[in-house]
Design goal:
heterotrimer, A mainly alpha, B alpha+beta, C mainly alpha, A: mainly alpha, B: alpha+beta, 5-stranded antiparallel beta sheet, 25 strands, globular
Chain lengths: ~325, ~625, ~325
């Protein structure tokens, strides 16, 4: 869906057609040679030195704050309709004017952030969970299981997601829950591939062989020995997926197939503003710009994280 | 023979023949007798009621009472300067000399599915086919039937046989001569099971068509069917297609006609169809009537009406009419464009909230309370800027059956609360009303305790509907009703798994019904019109689970309404129905819509209405 | 090489088949159905409804319908449209070239812009131009495509009136220049996301190339900076880009659908939305399958070209 940020970045990560271990594998030996600071501390230090990443983080935290405390901060309630004051110009009472039902645009931006961010985070979590499960199973067990699962991943990747999502929402109706669910269900495939690749190479390592030989159960091996090694990749992918899911939600809502229209989300606000974009352009500009800034901030954070976790990477979308 | 051209001067000393069915129809068309005189006379002659209905349909001016003055060419006032829309009273007649030739580009919102008049389901298609094809008769913009391929017709006294006299010298666009056999073949095709036409109402009443000579068709019908003339004569899908095309076989006629070849007898010919972009029709120089002034009309597909307005502004299109006409919310923007006229005509569609009669919604006081808590007047005046007409019941203002004594309930939430309290309901900690829901008798609240939670449904993608439902949701919230809103596309809304067939939720669905020519409203309220199952036909879905608490009363009134022929009596019956509906609030009545075609001011002869489609009189259009 | 191509093509067939089966199942599970709209037409009689169902083949058992659908696909027949009464393949082919044109124009713009910006930025990493393009790229990636399109439309078509607001041709036609004028805004809209992503990509691979020995030796031989760039660096930077382009096909498809709705571009996206409104299942299934075909082809081409350009990759 939409400007598929996560797919793009993920694509660059698995660009190398041979299932070579990605950046993370190379990180492991480095760690042993520097006993003083943990790899997480090192990464955090790097992250903090990146200005863009910190800027992104600050903006993101601010947006989350505004969304969480929208009820306290927003000057008006989210659905406070005022038919006497439809599409009003900006004024001291309504800093960004009012929409087609006389609702305060600024307040709706705050409340809209709630749903937009929750949808983004929710869908990204579902996607991450599915990606880990499928990737881990395929990578750990290999063989037939791997073949079947990876064929399924191919199948899912080949589906033109936009058409499929629109059909599903048109036919089954949509709610915040179904948007989160469907977006999550259609965006886990790249992560699954990454996790699988890492597992494939990691499971050959001695420590895994050792754990196996003393009879540690598979689930425990995966949890204790393998997952921690791909955690960084997962965190990066999840972060970028939040941005991607937010864009997707906006796209679906803009087309009229996303979150129900009375729920303010930035995409919904763009949808209802569309008929007025000539006469009251601010109604279309404000939510679009807000969404862009939010996505921008999350992308900064995601790229910052990637750079921090992967000292050899040159950052900003390069994987090779 | 009935001549559809009104000529009041045709009668000599003998005066009109008021002793036969056709004489009466003729006199009515000529305007020398009133509608009431026709009915009285028919009663005196002991003409059976259904036949009288046939006669009334044939003269069909039911929606607007007296014969209209609209046939006079009315000059449009320069009201546009005052920034208002102009009610359509006749064809537009801009100042200046009409030019010969020229072209008009009109915008429409949806691409036609097909230009096959027998297969299309979209009004955007009929907007165009009505100019390419002719039927036996045609409705003008005053809802009068006017001659087309038939110059006149005659109804037998028993109301079973219809004789049409066909126009001579008519040619199809491919050069074929039009004749009685084309009518016969069109009928056969419409009834062909393998062809599966979308609509064949009226035609399915025909048992046989005889063609005694080359200008006469005689249709035998199996029973007296009131709307026969209206459907077979004047319907948009009852046009005549050329025999040569139908002779190519059902499959070819189905898959190729209407797309590659679109051949009729109308004032314009099909020229080209650029998929998803535009359809071009051009002047038919061999038209049987006065040939068109314009050389061509292009219909551009512009799916978004704000883009349409942009293009009207930039001059990329010169007209937004037919299905592409603007709705109430877009008028202000249209009025802000230089050099265009915003026209306005009523629509027979009434928007309302369909209340599913389950639980509390079966009790009239609950429905009244909801009506009181619905800011209908504000929705009409503020949200829709007064560009719709508030409705009190199901008859359109301006029609003869309309009861103008009714007044809408005020927006009074306190009064609504009193009504709810009056039937023993109470408010919970969150202010939501609860109480025992009725089990058998809707008036007795004796069942398990339930909260007043209502799902609000609407059509997805319709901005106006979404806004209205949000306003209502908020107001009902103030009353103490818990609401959720859901939007679905129409086919899901009506589908077998839609909200209407779920017995455990109270629902209110925003929807519009479009009235026909007659005030007959059995389709909406009568118990016979409750669908037998979710895929059944019939318009009375709200009473699917439980009949209305006033079902017997409304059943009797609505069926009396179509039996009685005396207009005063009928009017009285429909007044009673409207009072009953207003009192009982089976659905919450909101408003009657209007359509707002927008044209550049230099377009003349344009005369839109709710009774016909865009190109119906394209031959009269001109530019100055 | 040929064996590799054949193997990849053979692998794509079960994928397509799977897509076809899944598409069919989605449609069958849908609530309501194509006849719901007919049934609620106040003028539809039960007999007519039965006729219509029969003529659409909806009265046959589910598995028969599925098998017929699969067999027809193999023959390139996507069935008959419910609403237009014409073969779906005809309906799709009428508008498909328009979508391809839009995608190709967008692709061309992105490739040119990405190469120019990427290489210019790489010449002085973290310099002024690099920082500017970097920031703009981030913005391009973060913007919703449709919103960017709306803003372009608002500015260039509505406010300034420089370009047409919608459509593909003027009503009276108008030739190639007219087409270009209509194409400009939608093509740029669809391109923005990939300009942003790809220019970053080109930048980093160019930076990598510039550090290679062959560049140093070329420079030391006294070749002009321009020749070094065009002759050596450009070609090697192209390799990774080409593969990314192939992989970004789904992105482009999505972009095209959105752009088409904003600019009333007469393509697959519009066809899809119209079909969705009237529940024309054969057309919906056809677009799904064709979309999948495009995506699979994109991946295939990316793989092949990657191998062609980079001799280190063998065709196992």
């Amino acid at each position: 869906m939409s400007a598929d940020v996560s797919v793009r970045t993920a694509a660059t990560e698995v660009r190398d057609p041979s299932p070579a271990p990605s950046s993370l594998a190379g990180l492991v030996p480095d760690l042993t040679s520097r006993p003083v600071r943990s790899p997480w501390q090192i990464a955090f230090g790097r992250f903090r030195r990146s200005k863009l990443a910190m800027l992104g983080l600050v903006i993101f935290v601010l947006f989350v704050f505004l969304a969480v405390f929208a009820a306290q901060i927003a000057p008006y309630a989210e659905n406070e309709i005022d038919l006497f004051n439809i599409t009003a110009q900006p004024s001291p009472e309504h800093v960004l004017g009012t929409d087609e039902l006389g609702r305060d645009e600024l307040s709706r931006l705050f409340y809209g952030g709630r749903i937009s961010l929750s949808v983004g985070i929710g869908a990204a979590l579902i996607s991450t969970l599915l990606g880990i499960v499928v990737g881990a199973i395929a990578g750990f067990y290999g063989g037939l299981v791997d073949t079947v699962l990876m064929r399924f991943v191919d199948l899912m990747l080949a589906f033109p997601a936009i058409f499929l999502l629109l059909i599903l929402f048109a036919m089954y109706g949509s709610s915040v829950t179904s948007v989160v669910l469907f977006l999550g269900v259609f965006s886990w495939m790249w992560l699954a591939r990454v996790v699988r690749g890492e597992f494939m190479s990691l499971k050959q390592r001695d420590f895994v062989e050792a754990a196996r030989s003393i009879g540690v159960p598979d689930v425990a091996i995966i949890r204790r020995h393998l997952l921690p090694n791909v955690l960084a990749a997962i965190i990066v992918a999840t972060t970028l997926n939040i941005a991607y899911s937010m864009l997707s939600e906006a796209t679906l809502s803009f087309l009229g197939f996303g979150v129900p229209p009375e729920t303010p989300t930035w995409g919904n606000m763009l949808n209802t503003a569309r008929p007025y974009y000539v006469t009251v352009p601010l109604l279309a500009i404000a939510p679009g710009l807000t969404l862009t800034i939010a996505v921008l901030a999350i992308n900064f954070v995601g790229d910052g994280l990637r750079d921090a976790f992967d000292p050899r990477g040159r950052g900003r979308g390069e994987g090779k | 023979m009935v001549d559809l051209n009104p000529r009041p001067d045709r009668y000599g000393e003998n005066g009109p023949d008021l002793d036969s069915v056709n004489g009466l129809i003729q006199a009515r068309i000529d305007g020398v007798i009133s509608r009431r005189q026709l009915m009285r006379r028919a009663a005196a002659l002991a003409i059976a009621a259904p036949v009288v209905n046939v006669m009334l349909h044939a003269t069909s001016d039911m929606a607007y009472g007296a014969p209209s003055q609209g046939r006079e060419r009315a000059l449009l006032q320069a009201m546009q300067a005052a920034g208002t829309s102009v009610p359509v009273e006749g064809p537009t007649a801009p100042e200046g000399e009409p030019k010969a030739g020229g072209a008009i580009i009109a915008g429409t919102t949806e691409e036609p599915d097909t230009l096959h008049p027998y297969l299309s389901q979209l009004v955007t298609a009929y907007d165009i086919t009505t100019g390419i094809f002719d039927g036996l008769l045609r409705y003008d913009s005053t809802q009068q039937l006017i001659p087309s391929l038939a110059e006149s017709f005659e109804i037998s006294d028993d109301g079973l046989t219809y004789t049409f006299t066909l126009r001579q010298g008519v040619k199809f666009h491919n050069g074929d001569a039009f004749g009685p056999q084309d009518v016969v073949n069109s009928w056969k095709m419409l009834m062909d099971k393998d062809f599966a036409a979308i609509a064949n109402l009226g035609w399915d009443q025909i048992t046989d068509i005889k063609t005694p000579d080359d200008k006469t068709v005689v249709m035998e019908t199996k029973e007296v069917y009131a709307p026969f003339i209206s459907y077979v004569g004047g319907d948009n899908s009852s046009v005549i297609c050329p025999s040569s095309e139908m002779a190519k076989g059902v499959q070819v006629f189905k898959t190729e006609f209407g797309r590659q070849r679109v051949i009729g007898t109308g004032p314009v010919k099909f020229k080209e169809w650029v998929p998803k972009q535009q359809i071009v029709v051009e002047k038919n120089a061999d038209y049987w009537g006065t040939p068109a002034h314009l050389d061509s009309v292009t219909i551009r597909v512009i799916p978004d009406d704000s883009t349409q307005l942009v293009q009207l502004r930039t001059g990329e299109i010169q007209m937004a009419g037919g299905a592409g006409a603007m709705g109430a919310l877009r008028v202000d923007e249209a009025l802000g464009i230089d050099g265009v006229t915003v026209l306005e005509h009523p629509s027979p569609g009434w928007s309302h909230l369909d209340l599913k009669h389950v639980f509390f919604l079966r009790h009239p006081d609950v429905r009244r309370a909801l009506d009181l808590a619905t800011p209908t007047q504000d929705i009409v005046d503020k949200l829709l800027k007064g560009r719709v007409v508030r409705s009190m019941a199901d008859q359109q203002p301006g029609t003869w059956a309309y009861d103008d004594t009714l007044e809408g309930r005020p927006f009074d939430i306190e009064q609504g609360k009193q009504l709810l309290a009056g039937i023993g309901m109470t408010q919970d900690a969150d202010g939501i009303w609860e109480g025992k829901a009725p089990v058998d008798d809707p008036m007795v609240l004796d069942g398990p305790v339930k909260k007043l939670e209502i799902e609000l449904w609407g059509v997805a993608g319709d901005a106006t509907q979404q806004q209205i439902l949000q306003v209502i949701a908020q107001a009902w919230g103030q009353l103490g009703v818990k609401t959720t809103t859901n939007f679905q596309d129409v086919s899901t809304l009506w589908g077998p798994e839609s909200y209407q067939w779920q017995p455990d939720t109270m629902t209110a669905c925003l929807y519009s019904w479009f009235n026909g020519n007659d005030p007959d409203d059995m389709y909406y309220w009568h118990s016979s019109q409750i669908p037998a199952d979710p895929t059944g036909t019939g318009g009375n879905a709200p009473a699917y689970f439980y009949h209305y608490n006033f079902q017997e009363e409304i059943d009797k009134l609505t069926s009396d309404g179509v039996k009685v022929t005396d207009p005063e009596q009928r009017k009285e019956i429909y007044a009673q129905i409207q009072e009953l509906l207003h009192d009982q609030v089976p659905v919450i009545f909101l408003y009657w819509g209007k359509a707002f075609p927008v044209i550049r001011t230099n377009i003349g002869g344009f005369w839109p209405s709710a009774f016909n489609r865009l190109l119906w009189n394209v031959q009269d259009w001109y530019l100055v | 090489m040929i064996r590799f191509v054949v193997r990849r093509v053979l692998e794509a067939i079960p994928l397509l088949l799977g897509i076809a089966v899944l598409s069919f199942i989605f449609m069958q599970l849908a609530p309501g159905g194509p006849d719901t709209l007919f049934a609620k037409n106040g003028r539809m009689t039960p007999e007519q409804l039965a006729n219509i169902r029969r003529s659409m083949g909806l009265d046959r058992p589910m598995h028969e319908q599925l098998i017929a659908w699969l067999l027809n696909i193999l023959r390139g027949d996507l069935g008959l449209s419910y609403s237009q009464f014409r073969p779906v393949s005809t309906v799709i082919w009428e508008v498909f070239p328009n979508t391809v044109l839009l995608m190709a124009a967008g692709l061309l713009i992105s490739l040119v812009c990405a190469l120019v910006f990427g290489i210019l930025a790489a010449r002085r990493p973290y310099g002024f131009f690099d920082n500017i393009t970097s920031f703009v790229s981030y913005f391009g990636l973060a913007m919703p495509v449709f919103w960017f399109g709306l803003m372009l439309q608002l500015l260039f078509a509505v406010r300034l009136g420089w370009l047409p607001s919608a459509g593909m041709h003027s009503p009276e036609g108008g030739g190639f220049l007219d087409l270009l004028r209509h194409l400009a805004l939608p093509a740029f809209t669809i391109a923005i996301g990939s300009i942003a992503g790809w220019s970053r990509y080109v930048r980093s691979s160019t930076v990598e190339q510039l550090e290679q020995d062959y560049v140093r030796s070329a420079r030391s031989k006294g070749l002009s900076e321009r020749r070094v760039m065009m002759g050596h660096v450009l070609r090697n930077s192209l390799i990774p880009l080409v593969t990314v382009v192939g992989i970004d096909v789904p992105l482009y498809l999505t972009g095209a659908v959105l752009t088409e709705t904003v600019f009333s571009w007469p393509g697959m996206g519009r066809l899809f939305f119209d079909a969705l409104t009237v529940r024309d299942y054969p057309i919906l299934m056809g677009t799904l399958v064709l979309g999948a075909l495009l995506i699979i082809l994109g991946n295939l081409v990316a793989d092949l070209i990657y191998g062609l350009l980079d001799p280190r990759i063998g065709y196992a």
